[in-house]
Each structure stands twice: as C-alpha cells, then as structure tokens.
From TrEMBL:
It comes from the Bacteria. One of its GO terms (cellular component) is membrane. This is Nitric oxide reductase. GO terms for biological process: aerobic respiration; electron transport coupled proton transport; respiratory electron transport chain. The chain crosses the membrane at residues 12-35, 55-74, 86-108, 120-142, 149-169, 181-206, 218-241, 247-274, 286-307, 327-347, 359-385, 405-430. Its main location: membrane. InterPro entries: Cyt_c_oxase-like_su1_dom (IPR023616), Cyt_c_oxase-like_su1_sf (IPR036927), Cyt_C_Oxase_1 (IPR000883), Cyt_c_Oxase_su1_BS (IPR023615). Residues 168-451 form the Cytochrome oxidase subunit I profile domain. Belongs to the heme-copper respiratory oxidase family. It is found in: Membrane.
C-alpha cells in the first residue's frame, strides 16, 4: 500500500463481505423454499427473501467496486484521495440505505419492481452517495496521472451512476416501464459493469504478472470497444416480448450474439497476461480468483447467455430455470469472483499481512466455483424440462414444478457448497494470520557466485 487514503477501501471491503454473507445465506433459504415451499411462508414469504437476496447482491458488488476504486485510483493517479471523510460519509449513507431497505421489505414496504424495490428515500440516498463518489474520485483522477485503467474505470463508474436516474422513472405504460427498467438492469450488468470489470482485471494483471502496461492497455481498449458495441443494442434481447416493435427481435438477436466477444476477450486477456508475465507474485489466491473470474464469466455470461438469447429460442425459454442458470453463473463469474479477486489482492496489503496463508482462500474458490457450476448444470436441465413440459406440451406451471423437485434438491445441495465456500473466504480474509516464513538452513563458507 503506497497511499494512506487507500485504507478507506478496507471499510468498503468489510461492509461488502458482510452483505455477501447475508446474500448467500438468503440464497440458501430460497433454495430450500423451492424444495419445501411452505417454509416460513407466513413469517418470511418467498418474495421478501428474494428481494433481500438480489438487493444484497447488487449492493455488496457496488460496495466492492467503490472500494476497488478507492484503492486503485490513488495508486494509478499517484496521489491521495481528494477527501477520505467524504468516502466514509458515502459508505455510511449506503449502509444506512441498505439497512433501511431490508427493514422496509420485512414489513412489506417496497416498490415492487424487481431489483429496484427500494423505497423512494433509499433510492435518493443511493443517488446522493453516487454523486459524492463521483465528485470525490473524479477530482482525484483529474488532478493526477491518467492511465487506460483509470480512464476505463471512471467511464464505467460515471455511466453506472448516471443510469441510476432511470430507477426513478416509473411510467404507467407497462412496456415503457420495462424499457426504462432494463436501461438500469441490463446497461449496468452488460455494459457499464463490464468496463469496471475490465479496469479492475487490468489492474490485477498489471500487479500480479508484471506485463508491460502498454500491452495491458491495448487489450483493455479492445475489450471495452466490443463490450459497448454489443452491450448497448444487446439490450434488445429484453425487448422481445414486452410490447415493443418487432424489429427489436432482430436487433436484440444480432447484437446479443456479439456479447460473447468481450467476455472471450477478457478470458483470453487474463491467460495471455499470465503466460507472458515475468513476475512470480506470491499472492497466488488473487491470481486464481482473477483467472477464475474471467473464465467463469465467459461461460456464464457468454455461453449460457447465448444459449437462450436468439428470439426464436427465447420465445420458449424466457422466464424459465434456464434464465436462472445463466444469471447465477454470469453474476458469479463476472462480478462476484472479480470482487473476491480484488479483496484477495488488496486486503493482505491493507492489513499488513502479506504474505499470508492462502490455502483456505484457494479452497474457498474451488468450493464456490464447483458449487456454482453444479447449480448451473442442475438449473439448465430443470429449465430444459420446464420449457418442454410448460411451453411446448402446455402443462400447468405448478404441475411442472412438481416434476422438478429432484433438480431443486440438487440445487440446494450445490447452494450448501457455495455458502460454505463464501464463509470460508470471509474467514480466510479476516481471521487467518500472516504466514510464517521459516528461514532456510545456513550454509557456512558457501561460495558466492560471480555476477
């Protein structure tokens, strides 16, 4: 750690990991409700648990992004953060807003729009926090050194915050409502967040591999260009069946097909950088999470997204468990694993614990990734059966659900692995002590090699 103000990132990472734990536990409860539908049905209904699960996911990922920016920008800009106090105020607003939203959900107060259920006052709080963040980081960025990493990161974060304005637009017309809704949801995760992902991944590759900055920057600009080219008009794959003109079926199909490209480029980028790297960095856990993130993102967001993105296929599959399979693997690979990679790299430095014992961290990677992969396959098979029985044969929804019980039980088992992996990761970050490096044997009168 080179700059004192980078310590503010530690508070963001702690808050993010706390919400991460809540999010995966909520997901495990949801998985069990699929197996036993009446579980807590009167005390904690399914729709409330789902809100907490998805909202906690979004918020902790954003906290991770903000923390990564507060760690990364000073190092890249070669100057301290403009105001550490503003950064802590922003964090306080986000934490209070999150607790307020969860409290509102528990008593039945919510906006009703998926992912955007937050009460109006919470939405305004998030907007204020976003403005504080942009002001703080932008002044730091503008006053310091400019790099491709910070240029891309700032572009992604500015667009991310500005798109939040569409969360306040809720027209009476349902088609318009869904269009604006996707402006937030899709253009976040399949456009602006991809820029943030590329920037953080580029920073990690720079630190972990020792590859020249010029090489990394060329890759990053290619990735960003393909992400924006495909992601913006790729929004059309959400407009197929919401009452919009038919030309969106072709626009969405064509540009969604290209959305595989940036994720393939990011996976290729990560492995090529490691292959070219000259540095044997001691933090193998951060490198594992970085490579895992880019690889799982390619399969989850790229391959599984393509499986049901063409409108001829999507006509039958939309809203089935195939969508859930894609969503889980894509979010885990592209953003969850990326944040955990950043935590694995930065937290030992922030806590002065490098080098640290990484065995549990790396074990958590395989537990979580294996569990999520098995969950994806299980949901894919369940969705395929659901599509045939419900959309082709025409069986009733609940009759079909009864036939999927075995798949839901297997999904719950995979969820246990994911939760254990998540708790193990948090433990490895917060509890495991610095690794003790044993001194090697002393060799007397050893010949000193000449240069």
């Amino acid at each position: 750690m080179k700059y004192q103000s980078q310590k503010v990132a530690y508070a963001y990472f702690l808050a993010a990991m706390g919400l991460f734990g809540i999010q995966v536990l909520g997901g495990l409860l949801l998985g069990w409700i699929y197996v036993s539908p009446n579980t807590l049905s009167e005390v904690l209904p399914f729709n409330i648990v789902r809100m907490i699960h998805t909202n906690a996911l979004i918020v902790w990922l954003l906290l991770g992004f903000f923390g990564a920016a507060y760690y990364l920008v000073p190092e890249e800009s070669e100057r301290e953060i403009f105001s550490v106090k503003l950064a802590y105020i922003q964090l306080a607003i986000l934490v209070v807003g999150t607790l307020g939203a969860v409290g509102s959900y528990l008593v039945g107060i919510h906006g009703g729009r998926e992912f955007l259920e937050q009460p109006l006052w919470v939405k305004f709080g998030i907007l204020v926090a976003a403005v504080i963040f942009l002001f703080n980081v932008s002044l730091t960025f503008l006053a310091g050194r400019k790099t491709a990493i910070t240029n891309i990161l700032m572009t992604g974060l500015w667009l991310l915050c500005l798109l939040w304005v569409f969360a306040f637009i809720n027209p009476d017309n349902l088609s318009l409502d869904k269009m604006y809704w996707w402006f937030v949801v899709h253009l976040w995760v399949e456009a602006t967040w991809e820029l943030v992902m590329a920037a953080i991944l580029g920073f990690l590759m720079l630190k972990l591999t020792g590859v020249d900055r010029e090489v990394i920057e060329k890759w990053l600009y290619i990735i960003v260009a393909t992400a924006l080219f495909s992601g913006i008009l790729g929004t059309g794959h959400h407009f197929y069946w919401i009452g919009t003109p038919g030309y969106w079926q072709w626009i969405g199909s064509v540009f969604s097909t290209f959305e595989v490209v940036p994720f393939f480029a990011m996976m290729s980028f990560a492995f090529v950088m490691v292959w070219k790297g000259r540095k044997n960095h001691p933090n193998k856990a951060a490198l594992l999470w970085s490579l895992g993130s880019s690889t799982v993102a390619f399969f989850g967001a790229g391959v599984w997204g393509f499986l049901h993105t063409l409108h001829g296929v999507n006509f039958y599959t939309h809203g089935t468990q195939i969508t859930a399979a894609h969503g889980h693997l894509a979010f885990y690979g592209a953003y969850v694993a990326l944040n955990l990679a950043m935590f694995s790299y930065a937290m030992p430095l922030l806590r002065g614990r490098a080098p640290y014992n990484q065995v549990l961290n790396m074990a958590s990677f395989w537990l979580m990734t294996g569990g999520m992969a098995f969950m994806t396959f299980t949901l894919t098979f369940a969705g395929t059966i659901q599509t045939h029985m419900q959309r082709i044969v025409g069986d009733y929804y609940m009759d079909v659900q009864d036939q999927l019980g075995l798949f839901y039980l297997m999904r719950f088992g995979s969820g246990i692995a994911v939760v254990l992996g998540a708790l193990l990761f948090i433990y490895s970050m917060l509890v495991v002590r610095r690794e003790v490096v044993k001194p090697g044997p002393v060799v007397k009168d050893a010949a000193v090699p000449k240069e």
